[in-house]
Amino acid sequence: MQKSVSIEQPVMDNMQPAKSIMVQSSKDTDFEFTGTVGNIAAANPRMVTRNVDVFYGEKQAIFDVSLDIGTNEVIAMIGPSGCGKSTFIRCLNRMNDTIESCKVSGEIRLDDKSIYRKKQDVVQLRARVGMVFQKPNPFPKSVYDNVAYGVRIHGLASNKMELEEIVVSSLRRAGLWDEVKDRLDAPGTSLSGGQQQRLCIARTIAVNPEVILMDEPCSALDPIATARIEELIDELRENYTIAIVTHSMQQAARVSQRTAYFHLGYLVEVGETSQVFTNPAHKLTEDYITGRFG
Amino acid sequence: MPVSNLLLVILGLTAIAYYLGLRRSIRVAGAKGVRSLESLPSYYGLLTAVWCAVPALLVMLVWISAQDAVISNLVLAQLPADYSHMSPAQLTLVLNDIKNIAGQNIENATSSDAIKAAAEHYLSLQRIGLASMSVVVLSLAMLLTALLWKIIHPKLQARQQFEFIIKVFFLLSSLLAILTTVGIVLSVLFESIRFFHLVPISEFLFGLDWSPQIAIRADQQAASGAFGAVPLFVGTLLVSAIAMFVAVPIGLMSAIYLSEYADRKLRSIFKPMLEVLAGIPTVVYGVFAALTVAPFLRQFGESMGLDVASESALAAGLVMGIMIVPFVSSLSDDVINAVPQSLRDGAYSLGATQSETIRQVIIPAALPGIVGGILLAISRAIGETMIVVMAAGLSARLTLNPLEAVTTVTVQIVTLLVGDQEFDSAKTLAAFALGLMLFVVTLALNVIALHVVRRYREQYE
Amino acid sequence: MSSHQTEVLSTAERVNRSLKRRYAAERRFRFYGLASILVALVFLVILLGSIFFTAIPAFQKSYIGLNVTFDAETLGIENIEASNAFLTADYDAVIKAALRQRFPDVSSRSEKRTLYSTISVGGTYQLADMLQAQPELLNTTQFVWLTADDEIDGYFKGKIDISAPESERRIKDNQIAWLESLKANGEVKKGFNWTFLTAGDSREPELAGIRSALTGSFLTLLITLLLSFPLGVAAAIYLEEFAPKNRWTDLIEVNINNLAAVPSIVFGLLGLAVFINFFGLPRSAPIVGGLVLTLMTLPTVIIASRASIQSVPPSIREAALGVGASAMQTVLHHVLPLALPGMLTGTIIGMARALGETAPLLMIGMVAFIVETPQGIFDPSTALPVQIYLWTDSPERAFSELTAAAIIVLLLFLVSMNLLAVLLRRKFERRW
């Protein structure tokens, strides 16, 4: 698995030009990827990725990433902006399919079956692997209908009572019930930013997915709302597998069991969160967590 | 001097004025050089030129537009006594006679000597008018040029003044929009008020019988024609409703397909083709409706055992609907594209299929904008003229049967105003009352629609 | 039992069970979308196709060759020296004589009348022109191609169903015999219908053309362009660059947006009440048409021009202001030249719309029967779309062909104007 790649072209993440990263990191020019440091495997993997490359048109955004996501663990993905962590997480439920120019190669398996295989149905996949986005995006519907939406389209409730049960329990588990129980008919967009994000989480868990992907779920929120979401993530871990992208190292340290460090589209280092933050094995990781760049 | 020649002379004078102003500014700068001037010499030239040309042209415009009325009154006043007790309408006819003879359009052997004399008088007055206008306009231009020549000195802020004049021109141009609206309102309002003196407004708005043709006979009181506009309103609504039945589903679904499903290549083929549909003049749609669609519907109806009128609301409505499709489609396309991607992502991440996302998330989110677009489309359908004139018919029948001929507000406006008639008859005035209704209704629809669409856009900005 | 089973199923399994139904719905929805577009496009194809195929015959017309004898006696010319000798001569008699000579068997009055109707009334003008140009032709016999009547023209173009019973046909059996005999002798030819492009309107389809209508449209559009472009650009500059943000400018803006959506016929009413009745401008004149269309087009021009000005980046303005240019200099020297292509594009599109506009022109009386080509902006005239409308109303079948042909001409103008706009946009499109 040892590989030596020198970077010749700018890397894209979410279509943002990567030039700015090159300037931020003084080591860019002599960065040579020599394979991921640390143990990519998890004890009880729910999702397995091997040699994943992602291209946006001609530009390669992810280089040969292999990583396991263990059952009932929270894995955090950190790295400077434009490092490909969001691109990577969007591969895990094929959200990248919505971008026309995006091509994914390599292997991504959910419970030992490739999610990019021909027979895999993307609707079913996304019901199993839910996602929460950077900016809260409640539908322009009532709080109740927001949560009930996924349940309805998939036909997960056989009657109204059951649907209501699912909605209430999802709102409870998302820690939002007490705040919205009196205004379930209010539009979801009328809630505060933090409430909206918890509504989106409730919407996701109402479908009862196996994996929840979170793409910087707190970046648009204030510290108090952020703290609530972090608590929530910790509670959700009991039932779900969670992969979270964050730009905040403190957050990664607080909520995750394992941490993966991405740099310019490469997975540089992965390991137990405590180990990565206290004793990083790779020079780049160390530079990043000590705030030398990023 | 003919008007065109006068214009050329003013143009020449303006060029001279520019040169004079320029030279003058350099002269007054003297030994200190042009840098001592407030502005560049060319601005002194431009300022002089503007003062030379603009007032002269304005006076000329006013003169020309007033001259005819003044001369006509003078000529009428000079007519022998037996003309003085004629009604204004008869006098208008006499005046037309005079003008025709003066213009040598018609050799009317029957016209009296008095009329012929008046025509002579008219011509001489016209000559005098034109000559005196030339004198006044040209002397004004020269006078102002001379004045500028005198007041040019190094401290004159020629650039600022010139720019101020240009700015005033810009401002006036932008006020033209308001002026147009005011013009529309006044022109339809005044005539409508005169109409409502002849026909009570309640009869017009709620009357069920429309037959204005009776009023054309001069010996009959105008009010004896029936001016109940309800059949027209119903006809207009019927045709518009058929058009919207065609345009809204087709336009909306095309917009959805183009913005959500079609790949770039397909879009680059379909979109311009829809735009072609939008660029075809309405008269062409009218021809198509009258010569192709209506006969086809009639034949088709016959084979089904239905009696379809040769000018049916259905034919007009169908073709109008197709005409409006690109309009609905492009407006919907805009609002659908304004729905943020994050909402789509949210739905997809829950495992919604594309059509579920569109139907349950995107359309509800875009609904205010789509409704606004549909209101604009309705306003267009109501105001559309040529298709209904050519394909809907003239008979004011109170019916909701799309297979029958109906008439609409716009059709009646055209019928009442095309052809020769006295301008003061109730028939003519009725057209303006209909115009007022049309303007008020479409204006209300537009204001509401634009407001809704703007609110919608602000929501996602 | 079943409810117990459902609870055991995992999310994935339940989702799988719903998939068949949902994908069917997905396919249906997608099909509706595609079908909608196809319906619109099929309609477009039928519309253009029907017009195109109707129009083709109108570009050709039939001529009948006759040996015409310019006999002074038949012509009724007594004094060749008289200045109007050739103008007032009886060319009709000459044509009739030529026809009688060609078909000596025709004897009854009604048959003769039918025979005479073979040649269009335009034939007399043709002969008059010939003789005036070459007076030496008097008393000679010439083989002349004369315009055929529109019904005869229709017969040669195969527009007449000869299998129908004779009584239901406009062309009778004896006529068919004559025409076939002419055809067999090579005395019938088809040529390009130059009349269509060079003549004004006429009651006779074979003599009608679009020249006067085209000239009227040209004059009207010229006025529209000369007024709406400078005024629209000036208004746009004021609103974008100078206007303070207050109620007045809001009002102006609302006004412009509304005017863009006011039905065109209302502008016609405005033109009738203000320009004709109040200012006393002549009815049916291109000047009034131009003014009305200016007011109608102005919102389009203003909106396009404003968008074009907005696309000029502020850095350009800052750069100009930074070197000490006045606000007006900044606009006139820098913003305007950069925004001009966009403004022109918008104006051309507005012009194209004005060219196809009919309803307001009906209001101001540009629906007259105009044979003469208008010489100036105060002459009575009509416009191309109005001419189309007028011809549609005419009962003769041949007029519907002319209608279609006139539509083709109108569409050609529209297409070229829009192409010009597209090219202009391509050439000057700038990405900042």
Proportion of helical residues of chain C? 55-70%
Supply the helix-strand structural class of chain A. Answer: alpha/beta
Biggest protein-protein contact in the assembly:
B-C, 93 and 88 residues
- Low-confidence spans of chain A: pLDDT under 50, at least 5 residues? 1-29
Strand order of the largest sheet of chain C: 2-1-3
Count of distinct strands of chain A: 12
Helix % of chain A is 25-40%
What is the CATH domain class of chain A?
A: Alpha Beta
Secondary-structure-based class of chain C equals mainly alpha
CATH architectural designation of chain A:
3-Layer(aba) Sandwich
Question: Residue-averaged pLDDT of chain C, rounded?
Answer: 87
Instruction: Specify the CATH class of the largest domain in chain C.
Output: Mainly Alpha
Give a quick account of the main beta sheet of chain C: strands, pairing sense, barrel closure: 3 strands, antiparallel
CATH-assigned fold name of the largest domain in chain C: MetI-like fold
Please state the second-level CATH architecture of the largest domain in chain C. Orthogonal Bundle
The fraction of residues in strands of chain C falls at 5-15%
Radius of gyration of chain A over alpha carbons?
19 Å
In CATH, the homologous superfamily of the largest domain in chain C goes by the name: MetI-like
Order of helices and strands of chain A: EHEEEEHEEHEHHHHEHEHEEHH
The end-to-end distance of chain A, rounded to whole angstroms, is: 28 Å
